[in-house]
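Exercise: predict the fold of this chain.
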Amino acid sequence: MQLMLAIIQSEDADLLTKRLNSAGFELTRLNTVGGFLANGNVSVLAAVEDEQIETVLDVIRRTCHTRKRFINPLPAGAEPAHLALAAPAYPLEVQVGGATVFCFPIKRFARLRRGVSPADAPASIPTKSDQGANIMNLVLSVVQNEDADPVTRALLAAGHRVTRINTAGGFLRRGNVTLLVGVDEAQVDDVLGIIAAQCRPQPQSASAETPAHAATALVLATSRFVQV
């Protein structure tokens, strides 16, 4: 299983979300800016089986188009006085788009709910990349808005550092919060247990394929961890 991170233009975000959801993929959206597409954009996160990656890429290719933009050739705030003898600076036409996509191996994927041990959680999937122990892992968990505060407080009380990102839609199909927690390999189940204990299940998400769950958690391997 892979975590796909697609950075796309804002104009394509709604249609891409609709098409991926229609194809059966759950995703989480983050409003971002600048960087790879040099403009206001949206970052999309989706957990995808290895054999489905090309399917998702095909949807992205069909949806995210290149566009022409005009940019100021002068740095922001530059005074043109010292450029009086230079040729007039006209806006430059550049082509941007359509998407930048990254794939990250997922060590573990789980849907969490109260009363179920993280090790026994439904849809807990060990992946091919889960070989050996890493010193540190990154737990990326998507929780409901109303559960974000109690989960954060519980993680902090247990001595874990947490980063919060307000996100929308996707894994929990509504406004939500994404939590990032750097944790030792031996503490992963403890962190997942804290998250599961503080989150309420979503009855509307229950189905034969997807039992009612409170949060979605991805465990990513960290190749290097440095505190400076």
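Check your answer against the key: The CA atoms of residues 1 and 51 lie 9 Å apart.
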